[in-house]
Task: structure prediction
Amino acid sequence: MASNEARTQSNCYNISTQSQLPWGVRKERQTFPSGINIDIEVKPGEFILRTLFAEFTVQAERKIDLVLAEVLERPLSKSLQRGEDALFDQLLSAFGSVAEHCLPSLLRTLFAWYDRQGVDSSLSQEHRLRADSKNKNDLQEKTEKDYLHERRDLAVEFIFCLVIIEVLKQLSVHPGHDDLVNYIENLAFKHFRFREGAQTGPNAQNVNIIADLYAEVIGVLAQSRFQSVRKRFMAELKELRSKEPSPITTHSIISLLMGMKFFRVKMVPIEEFEASFQFMQECATYFLEVKDKDIKHALAGLFVEILVPVAATVKNEVNVPCLKTFVEMLYSHTLDLCTKKKHSLALFPLVTCLLCVSQKPFFLQNWHYFL
Result:
């Protein structure tokens, strides 16, 4: 029995041991908390993945504890964004590298970690409702506790998004896996839904930061699963457009539109380019139809976000019919709106972008308006 215990202990990385590398150098092995055991009697690939995840869980908990010790008003990006922690950035890069070989199992493990964190936006609402029945002093205490709980959830979301963004960059070499794609889409689009009351309180800025991170997730996902993202976005937009006009509906549509701001047009192959601008034409049709000023301005901002990278690299693509049609659909209407003071500031950047991606004859015919 004693020999079995010794063997088990030597096979786990919960103590500091040394091993000899193939070229003769002795290297001390990574140490982890006693609750994390890594069996070395597994295949090399599985061992690497387990070691990475063990390190990830340790670093994630450390970073979560760090942000919980800060004041509630401090933006999470100040502590968690890329470039703030060289060790964690290196870990993210490692996840991106191994994802090329084991992306499905890596994503499933990440999802399992995320689910175990117990992130649930409805939980904080339940706490607040329960606090309403208490006296004023207790209400203040409960509210602060709720905000702290919410801050932890947001920190988990932040870390989760950073890893997912790195991993999804390898999704193009892993066709299929619709279940994993649907999981990510469901999670991301849930964060694009406008929640009344979420824009107040000490965590308001962090809620917006997380929504932007999920928008970045969707942007990376769309590079390899564009049709799936497009279908989901249009379905969500159709549902919102079917609702009665109201300030809540307007804010919800704008939040959804902002969820696509990291979408980037793929210049090659030409089929991908055409598919992207067919999607842009669908959005342009909505832009022409919608009467709400705020939604129109949000759409214009979204078009600019997407068109600026295109304008920086476009050459012969200006002759592709779908891009030509898109420019012609929007230019005259947008230029007319720019003459109105309430639209000029928001829509003028779109006018310039449309000219930058237009054909030469169209540009020469219309640029004089800027004189």
